[in-house]
Specification:
This protein is of the alpha+beta class. It is 53% helix and 15% strand. The chain has 3 domains: 112 residues, Butyryl-Coa Dehydrogenase, subunit A, domain 1; 106 residues, Butyryl-CoA Dehydrogenase, subunit A, domain 2, CATH 2.40.110.10; 150 residues, Butyryl-CoA Dehydrogenase, subunit A, domain 3. Strands 1-4-5-8 form a 4-stranded mixed sheet. Strands 2-3-7-6 form a 4-stranded antiparallel sheet, with no helix packed on it. It has a two-stranded antiparallel sheet with strand order 9-10. Helix 1 packs antiparallel against helix 2 and helix 4 runs parallel beside helix 7. The model has no long low-confidence stretch (mean pLDDT 95). Bound molecules: coenzyme a persulfide. The site of coenzyme a persulfide has 21 residues, from helix 7 and helix 11. Keywords: FAD, Flavoprotein, Oxidoreductase. GO terms for molecular function: acyl-CoA dehydrogenase activity; flavin adenine dinucleotide binding.
Length: 378
């Protein structure tokens, strides 16, 4: 039995993604407006084949490759969190269409999201329905053969700038998860409005308002009243990759802390000679490696078509462990580097703000524990 390792092909892919990120994407990130959708960045990802790698083919039965998604997110995160986030949001917004859209929806949107010409977004959360997603209230009122959407979505990544949204709306009142339908809504639909939200770490995120947005039967993804499952299956794929993002950030923080403590003179030697420092670095590295393996095993289970309950449990474990690990590692790195790390513009200052949100979005750590706990006692 050998230790787990990426295949040679995967290692080459990671090196390729890093090189693309350094040479091609970072300059486009720098030219963009912080906290807003960077369309040139998405197009560059399309040109360099990263989006196509995420959605390899509609004919595989699985419209996405989880391991490739995780490797890309981890590699991009070590270079540019902005590039990483742009890839991830495009994936999250597009996946429900590719998973459940009819042929017309897929034919219309797939080429544009893979080339990076269309920006996609996933609209589930509401002001009063975050962790309890089945409590969502955005109303789909029957209107002829379709519906009119009324209500609000909150903390929606890529909103209000996206070109295409998957919107989860209530088609049957008081039915919780069994009364939710997923709709495709174009960004320029009449009655759709929104505004940007300002977070501690700049992020393209916003609020959406729906005042009688018309959707018809052709816009339904999957089946009426069965949309909640589409949201959950989407999160099953993306949660391990949130873990991969977190691990990429944690690795970047560890690398920074190692480089600094190896050369920083103190107490007649360098900082890393201090046992308190070297043991802290050891804990950081060990926890990163453990989390990384959980992420890869969750992604591997998804790609291998494991039992759905196992995919869900591994996905929750990977996200929970990796995002909590990343918080610990980034905080520890700040502590080791000291006051310099607090200065605006220092890579650790950026990571310290950036690492916080993944413990909340796509299911807070508490929700991941609920999912894991239920799977153990079901
Ligand atoms: N895959 C497929 N179907 C799933 C599923 C999954 N992973 N998880 C749940 N479902 C289905 C269930 O099978 C059930 O279907 P039936 O009614 O047909 O039996 C339905 O969805 C409801 O499931 P459940 O009863 O478990 O729903 P709960 O309201 O108790 O809780 C949690 C579900 C807490 C897991 C869910 O609300 C959740 O993930 N919350 C966090 C939401 C989130 O991540 N928000 C962030 C938005 S994106 S930034």
């Amino acid at each position: 039995m050998t230790a787990f390792a990426l295949t040679e092909g995967q290692q080459q892919f990671v090196a390729h993604v890093r090189a693309v990120a350094v040479d091609e994407l970072r300059p486009v990130v720098d030219a963009g407006e912080e906290g807003h959708v960077n369309r040139e960045l998405l197009k560059a990802m399309g040109t360099h084949g990263l989006l196509a790698r995420l959605f390899p083919s509609a004919s595989t039965g699985r419209p996405a490759a989880a391991m490739d998604l995780c490797l890309m997110r981890e590699a991009l995160a070590t270079v540019s969190t902005e590039a990483e986030t742009a890839l991830a949001l495009q994936g999250l917004g597009s996946y429900p269409f590719l998973l459940s859209g009819n042929d017309a929806v897929i034919d219309t949107w797939r080429p544009a999201v893979v080339s990076g010409d269309a920006v996609a977004a996933f609209a589930l959360s509401e002001p009063d329905a975050g962790s309890d997603a089945a409590a969502l209230q955005l109303e789909a009122r029957p209107d002829g053969d379709g519906w009119l959407l009324h209500g609000e979505k909150m903390w929606i990544s890529n909103a209000p700038e996206a070109d295409i949204y998957v919107v989860f709306a209530r088609t049957t009142p008081d039915a919780r998860a069994r009364g939710v339908t997923a709709f495709a809504v174009a960004g320029d639909a009449a009655g759709l409005g929104g505004e940007h939200l300002d977070l501690i770490s700049p992020h393209p995120v916003g609020r959406l308002t729906f005042e009688g947005v018309r959707v018809g039967p052709a816009d339904v993804l999957g089946e009426v009243d069965r949309g909640f499952t589409i949201a959950m299956r989407t999160l099953d794929l993306f949660r391990p990759s949130v873990g991969a993002f977190a691990i990429g950030m944690a690795q970047a923080a560890l690398d920074t802390a190692i480089a600094y403590t190896k050369q920083r003179k103190a107490f007649g030697g360098v900082l890393s000679d201090q046992q308190a420092v070297s043991h802290k670095l050891a804990d950081m590295a060990t926890r990163i490696e453990a989390s990384r393996l959980l992420v890869y095993s969750a992604a591997g289970a998804y790609d291998a078509g494991a039992d759905p309950a196992e995919i869900t449990r591994r996905s929750a474990m990977a996200k929970l462990d990796a995002t909590e690990t990343a918080q610990f590692v980034v905080d520890a790195a700040v502590q080791l580097v000291g006051a310099r790390a607090l200065q605006r513009g220092h890579p650790l200052e950026h990571l310290y703000r950036e690492v916080r949100a993944p413990r909340i979005y796509e299911g807070a750590s508490e929700i991941q524990r609920t999912i894991i706990g239920r799977s153990l006692t079901r």
